Amino acid sequence: MHEHTAADDYAASWDARYSESDRLWSGEPNAALVREAADLAPGTALDLGSGEGGDAIWLARRGWRVTGVDISRVALERAAAHVREAGVADSVELRHCDLGAEFPEGRFDLVSAHFLHAHGGLPREDILRRAAAAVAPGGVLLVVGHSRNASMGHLDHEQRMSLPTAEEDLAVLELAEGRWEVLRCEEYEHTYTGADGESTRVDTVVKVRRRPRGAAGGGAPPGAGGAGRGGAPPRRPAPVRGRRLSRLRGRR
Predict the structure, then answer these.
(1) Which of 34, 86, 156, 193 sits at 20 to 30 Å (Cα–Cα) from 178?
(2) Which residues of 160-177 are buried (b: 16+ CB within 10 A; e: fewer)?
(3) Closest C-alpha to 215, from 201, 204, 229, 202
(4) pLDDT for 25-40, tens place per residue?
């Protein structure tokens, strides 16, 4: 007999939220994904909290082979329909997964975690460290979250203050010295398109690349924007004091 757990309540809450409407999100990919992954060479991608499939579809259309996982079966059923409608079913695998209890096996060229916040007892920090461990050599981890500086009516002050900064997310990853490049660690403002239309919000983004095998402690891979061959490894960026404006749009 299955013992009721906090994860069951978490899954039920998301199922209920998705069931409130035919589409919870816009269907467009997340703005940060478009900005940060548009120039990446296609490979294998892991989408953590894949929702209704907007990010997975965008990646698949660009040649990626995508594994999308979510705790909501309602979201997964909806995403499967959207994937079929988009004609990319052969490139997208959707799985039901409680990331607090299990994590997809394998290594991926891109691991994407958008708005995976620690609600309902979700062990977010552990999940993000496992996400980093799942990045293949030369691959990228992209972590995007809501900023505590954002104006979000559904969150009270205490909930907003519990949201991590980009620098805190970077520290949580506990990346091995010399084996990773920090490509982006910042807070940025952008246009958000949701089911109710457009608005402006502030999010955080951390983008790191695992160095290719044999490159630990050396220069950055070509095109990474770090130190040149034989130069000093790139330094972590200083904390962001202002907001960067992006005109990108989207939400899964």
Answers:
(1) 34
(2) eeebbbbbebbebbebee
(3) 229
(4) 566 898 899 999 999 9
